[in-house]
Design goal:
about 110 residues; mainly alpha; Cytochrome Bc1 Complex, Chain D, domain 2; 6 helices; globular
Length: about 110
């Protein structure tokens, strides 16, 4: 891959993970994740995932936001408990949680240091 193409691909990949968030959104999302929605009990205190519950840290803002919106609207039966949990969140809270999680560094894979 040429240097120019690699740089463009890296910039695109980085942009996909950035959230259109302010520091207040990220802070608010942190509080929601750990306190109001209690997401940490299934997804881990650092959003690293636990057992069958997936890692959320470092995921794309847009992916997380859309999944929460779908669950909030009652869709996405692959995780049957999530519609009830997401229904507790208002639109600004969904944006804040998605913003926060998109900035949480992903946990290293097994074997990484």
């Amino acid at each position: 891959m040429s240097s120019c193409k690699f740089t463009a691909a890296a910039a695109l990949a980085a942009a996909v993970h950035l959230a259109p968030a302010s520091a207040q959104d990220v802070s608010f999302g942190d509080r929601l994740f750990h306190d109001k929605a209690d997401c940490q009990f299934c997804h881990g205190p650092e959003a690293q995932g636990i057992g069958k519950f997936p890692r959320l840290g470092g995921q794309s803002y847009y992916f997380l936001k859309r999944r929460l919106e779908n669950w909030n609207e009652g869709y996405e039966t692959i995780a049957p408990h999530m519609p009830g949990i997401a229904a507790l969140l208002k639109p600004d809270e969904i944006e804040a949680v998605a913003s926060y999680l998109s900035f949480v560094p992903p946990a290293p894979s097994k074997g990484e240091f």
